[in-house]
Amino acid sequence: MSDKELSEKSVIKPTGIRNHFRLLIRFVCLIAAVLCLLPIRDKDALLPIVPALSSFVAVTSVLAAKTIKPILGLGLVAGLVALFRHRWFCRWACPMGLCLDGASCFGRRLKRKPCQAMSIGRWLLALTLGGAILGYPLFLWCDPLALFTGVFLLTEQHQLLAGAVSFLLVMLLLTFSLLWPHVWCRGLCPLGAFQDMLSIMSRSVRSVLKSATDQPDGGYSGHPVARRTILGLLVGATSASILRLTGYKPSRPLRPPGAVDELTFKGLCTRCGNCIRSCPHNIIRRDTGQYGIAGILTPVLTFDENYCREDCTRCTWVCSSGALVGVDIDNKQDIQIGMAQVDMNLCLLGEDHECSACMRWCPYNAISYVFSEAEYMLVPVIDAGKCNGCGACEVACPTSPHKAIRVLSNTNIS
User: Of the candidates 280, 287, 282, which has an alpha carbon nearest to the alpha carbon of residue 262?
Assistant: First the structure.
């Protein structure tokens, strides 16, 4: 089956009783997805379900993280079904697909011509899978379910700006679909391209298993994996390997607990915003680009008004891509977020004032005061074996406008 035929099959044409029933099911799935993502009571258990349904994210996460989170089973099952039912998820369940199909339908009523089939989605897929093999999936954030989930950051009053970014991205896709109907589903969506690839693989395997005397299946012929797919895999793998082999060490911000290594994190994070929404203390923000363009919109920790509480691991359990590994409360002290550093030029002890705020507030008893012969005064000493970088000391420090004690990521500590 050619690319054009596959892309044309991806377009839903609601005609007939069966297709009206399909449209009804899609509306039900959209409503269910919205209910999972709306901030109705404490629903952390439901937040990861929608982005976890992406088989594209599930397979990429397994390749990059080399582990399987239980929630990824949803996406793996969806991918297994796609082996036998071409683009079934697009046709029956994708909430983003329904929204974009609605915009496309309206565009066609306005006499806009459907977009010709393109291969950008397959390039995005190949580059991402190739990079994932070496730990840096390049375009995982383009997953439609992650984009859809990110819009619901608008429901959090303290995250309106972060949610506005995701909202504008989705509105841009809706505008494209209005002007060029079906442009996303036919040629841009990496999840759709992944389902196309699974369908091609399934047909190829079935054709191989057939007896040589059987008739060919629908005239399908050709190598199961297109040459550009192989090229994309190689380019993606090469890009990831270059970053690692050249010793590239990006300036790392403070990440939520359970974050994988920085390079893999930037690739695996889908920017869905679930970790931000799940944090009850509002200390997770979106990176606005100060740590490089590759990490834009990824979650970072800020200890302006609160710290990463010792009895909270919510953000680690709502991540569906594997960028954050699940953390148990009993083991949280062993999860290194960063390390506290003291600037005695700002510390009140350095000015002969009394202060013990950082030691009193440290939940892990990682700070003590030791008399320094060199400075001839008491100085705070951080026990690296106990400090996990929770930020309690930074929040408690009374100096202003700059804190005398700050938590820095390990890569930024000289």
Answer: 287
Reading the block at residue 82, the tokens are 């796609």
- With 0-12 / 13-18 / 19 or more C-beta atoms within 10 angstroms meaning exposed / middle / buried, residue 31 is exposed
For the chain, first and last CA: distance in Å? 57
Backbone angles phi, psi at 284, to 5 degrees: -100, 125
- CATH class for the domain made up of 336-414: alpha beta
- Cβ(89)–Cβ(191) under 8 Å? yes
Q: Which amino acid is at 369?
A: Y
Check the CA dihedral 165-169-175-178 and report its sign: negative
* pLDDT value at 243 more than 90: no
Peptide bond into 280 cis (omega under 30): no
Reported for 6-10, long-range contacts at CB under 8 A and 24+ positions apart, including other chains, are 6/86, 6/196, 6/199, 6/200, 7/117, 7/118, 7/186, 7/187, 8/117, 8/186, 9/86, 9/87, 10/87, 10/90, 10/182, 10/185, 10/186, 10/192, 10/196
> Where in the chain are the domains?
3-241, 336-414
Q: Which residues pair with 377 in a beta bridge?
A: 372
From residue 37, alpha-carbon distances to 115, 320, 372, 396 in Å are 31, 14, 53, 34
pLDDT at 413: 57
Model confidence at 12, in pLDDT bands (50, 70, 90)? Answer: very low
Query: Cα 276 to chain center, whole Å?
Result: 12
Query: DSSP H helical segments within 250-399, as ranges?
Result: 262-268, 274-278, 314-317, 357-361, 392-396
The dihedral built from the CA positions of residue 384, 390, 396 and 400, taken in this order, carries a sign that is positive
* Contact assessment for residue 398 and residue 355, using Cβ atoms and an 8 Å cutoff: yes
pLDDT band (50, 70, 90) for residue 220: very low
**Bridge partners of residue 286, in order along the sequence:** 299
Rounded to the nearest 10 degrees, the angle between the axes of helix 55-65 and helix 190-209 is 80
pLDDT at 371 > cutoff 90: no
Dihedral angle, C-alpha 274, 320, 56, 293, nearest 10 °: 50
3-state secondary structure 314-340: HHHHCCCCCCECCCCHHHHHHCCCCEE
pLDDT band at 15 (very low <50, low <70, confident <90, very high): low
